[in-house]
Amino acid sequence: MMRRSIGTFSTVLAVVLAVGAAQACDKHGKAAAKTGDGVVAKKGGCGSHGATTAGDQAPCSKKCAKKTATLVKDDADGHGGCPVEKKVQTVLASLPSMKYRVGDDTTCCSKSASEMAEKTGKPLQYVVGDQTYGSEEEAMAALTKSLEKEAESMASMQFAAGGKCYGCPMSAKDAAKKAGGKVVYRVGGVDFEDKAKAESAVKLVSEKVASLKMSYKVGDSSFCCDKMAGSAAKKAGKKMLYVVDGEETPCAKTAQLKLVQAKIRTIIETAASL
Fold first, then answer.
1. Around 204, how many Cα atoms within 13 Å sit in the side-chain half-sphere?
2. How many domains does the chain divide into?
3. At 144, is the secondary structure helix, strand, or coil?
4. Which of 43, 55, 137, 148 has the greatest number of CB atoms lying within 10 Å of its CB?
5. Radius of gyration (Cα) for the chain, nearest Å?
6. Where in the sequence is the domain holding 183, given as residue range(s)?
7. Cα first-last separation, the chain
8. Alpha carbons 240 and 256: distance in angstroms, whole number
9. Which helix or strand (DSSP H or E) is residue 33 part of?
């Protein structure tokens, strides 16, 4: 039963582990600071320590390949030669993910972990951040919750200076002064020197994320409402499938994880493409 469960979710969860730590405002700390255009910068972390700089490479000369909900891709060069995808990968590699632990050994490969558990007779545990879970379902729920917080933070504008990121512009200004540098504006893990451009990124990101919806499928019929789909599934005696970004799954928890992953990728891609 344990090995079958791993196979169900391994493609969704096999991403590089690096937890992004939140940075709070210091003496200027406020829950939120409004920019000149009314955009709210929420208190908290930057959403990613793997920030890239907007405009550091020329845009793609061709359309990038369609992205799936899986966060970190397995391309041979890590970004398929696409500058935007390279930026995306840099940020994605810093986000929370799941690892697998058997005894004192930890791996990001579910298959290897399953083999070790069978060979040693030791239990397979699931690691998300600093927490260890006994079941994959429990770990998946924790990962989804963690990524949802990251997505919320990344979709807002943060302030970076002196090698750190702040939710408070005054804190960032003080840090920039001490470091002899300047404040840059971070959205989706991408740094902008122009505040107006960062504000535009926040607006565009919000629009793009709002357009991401989960749909449902029963047989050949598609639904935008889970209740209608559930009723149709009951009448037809068929399973209801959850559809996220063109991918289907019969598991609601997997679908929720795929949805937040799709949102994060969209946030980064949108900001990186500006």
1. 17
2. 1
3. helix
4. 43
5. 20
6. 2-272
7. 46
8. 15
9. strand 32-34
